[in-house]
Write a structure and sequence with these properties.
Elements: E1 2-4, H1 7-18, E2 22-30, H2 35-48, E3 54-59, E4 62-67, E5 75-79, H3 85-95, E6 106-113, E7 118-126, H4 132-150, H5 178-202, E8 218-225, H6 227-239, H7 244-260, E9 266-275, E10 293-302, H8 308-324, H9 327-345, E11 353-357, E12 366-367, E13 370-379, E14 388-395, E15 398-406, H10 412-429
Parallel strand pairs: 5-6, 9-11, 11-14
Antiparallel strand pairs: 1-4, 2-7, 2-13, 3-4, 6-7, 8-15, 9-10, 12-13, 14-15
Helix pairs in contact: 1-9, 2-4, 5-9, 7-8, 7-10
């Protein structure tokens, strides 16, 4: 296998060169499998997914995925200290770079308590080989394979052999190739320039995301919203004709504005992420490891006292219009240029907030005797990235919101205040 990286994949590598940038997923388990079973299951997955046995090759200014002859299994077994141990390990994982030039492009830590059969699987993946959809599917397959070893049965997984998914831009619809793509890109690029100029003018003399001159560490924080609140919020969102993604993003922006910006009236920028797997031709299944996403930035006017549903509608209209016009394809192809500009200039942050809403992942509450009590997902905090990022997903009838922030942007108490303000905003949004 020698496959050149596509433009979006290169963007992620460029970001990682500046500071560690990868995915960290956590499965919290009861009646957990033994470390040996987890080891065996990981070996099976590694044999089925070429990207898990790969490294990056840099050759004449280009990057390639190449297969390792002997990739080894980067699994670390650690004794589990307590219920909060996984948070410390996950934060360390987020800040430790993956050695992409030597590989493999992932690692796994297993925190195991043999006395109480509780454990956490902490899986770290190079972002260039995986997105939220394929990561969730990989975790599902890992637990299924653990059960097969527990039952002493062989459950074959659908393997990809030597084949790997091509770069996402190679599967864009026909109207986003050649000259027609150039016209789309010119329109999109001009719109982004106008938006940025307007943002700079309107925020002159006002607080914007701060640049840091010294190293800073990423921190994580999670909240869970109960089923009744999620149901009422979803129902009200449908009435207001907005998505849950737009509602959650609006809540994040208002909370940050109130807690960190003293409620100032000003435009704020946020990133929203789109899964492209069902939009490319041919579509790509979640079983295949790859990064098939697009990130789009939106600017909306925010103040501490803004009406929540008004902001959610404004944001939703912007997102809907851009997705309908095909901006999701253009943005994916132009992300490399954006990341190059940001990391070379180091003069501005990407946005104030960012949200990736994953919906319902394909992870079950139990696999044989193995019980999954919680799932969490994080992407490395970035000194040039948003002040507050989040991964949100539904599991066991709860909405799990996993926040990532920098300790230079806010203290732990400030981060807790922001997260609780988000909860309060959503409660008020449904009349509670």
């Amino acid at each position: 296998m020698k496959r050149e990286l596509g433009t979006f994949e290169r963007a992620l590598v460029i970001a990682d060169r500046h500071a560690p940038f990868h995915i960290v997923s956590v499965l919290r388990l009861e009646s957990a499998p033994s470390p040996q079973i987890v080891r065996n299951a990981l070996k099976v997955l590694q044999s089925h997914h070429p990207f898990l046995s790969a490294r990056l090759l840099q050759e004449k200014g280009r990057y390639y995925f190449v297969r390792l002859i002997d990739p080894g299994l980067p699994l670390h077994i650690l004794p589990r200290w307590n219920d909060g141990h996984w948070v410390q390990v996950a934060e360390v994982e987020l800040g430790n770079r993956i050695d992409v030039l030597n590989g493999p492009l992932f690692r796994c830590t297993y925190l195991y308590d043999s006395t109480h059969e509780r454990a956490e699987i902490i899986l770290t993946l190079c972002h260039a080989i995986a997105d939220a959809a394929s990561t969730a599917r990989l975790l599902h397959d890992l637990l299924k394979t653990c059960v097969s070893f527990t039952d002493e049965k062989t459950v074959p997984l659908r393997g990809t052999g030597e084949a790997v998914a091509p770069p996402v831009e190679s599967r864009f619809p026909p109207e986003f190739h050649g000259l027609r793509f150039v016209l789309h890109a010119l329109r999109f690029g001009l719109g982004q320039v106008v938006d940025e100029i307007s943002y700079r003018i309107q925020t002159r003399g006002k607080r914007t995301p701060l640049l840091h001159q010294h190293p800073t560490r990423g921190r994580i924080l999670s909240i869970q919203l109960p089923e009744d609140l999620v149901d009422e919020l979803s129902r009200r969102a449908r009435q207001e004709e907005v998505t849950l993604n737009s509602a959650l993003n609006a809540a994040m922006m208002i909370a940050v504005n109130r807690e960190l910006y003293a409620g100032q009236q000003a435009p704020m920028q946020t990133f929203s992420f789109t899964n492209l797997r069902s939009h490319v031709s041919p579509p790509l299944s979640d079983e295949e490891l790859a990064c098939y996403i697009s990130m789009l930035r939106y600017t909306v006017r925010v103040e501490g006292g803004v009406d929540f549903w008004t902001l959610a509608r404004d944001l939703h209209k912007k997102i809907y219009a851009s997705l309908k016009s095909g901006d999701k394809f253009v943005a994916a192809a132009m992300t490399e240029s954006l990341i190059r500009i940001i990391t070379e200039l180091k003069s501005f942050r990407m946005s104030t907030t960012a949200l990736n809403y994953n919906g319902v992942p394909p992870i079950e509450a139990s696999y044989g005797n193995i019980k999954v009590t919680e799932i969490h997902g994080f992407v490395s905090a970035y000194d040039l990235g948003p002040e507050l990022s989040a991964q949100a997903q539904l599991f066991n009838d709860q909405l799990i919101c996993d926040f990532i922030y920098l300790d230079a942007d806010m203290t732990r108490d400030e981060a807790i205040a922001v997260s609780e303000e988000i909860r309060t905003i959503l409660l008020h949004a449904v009349g509670k």
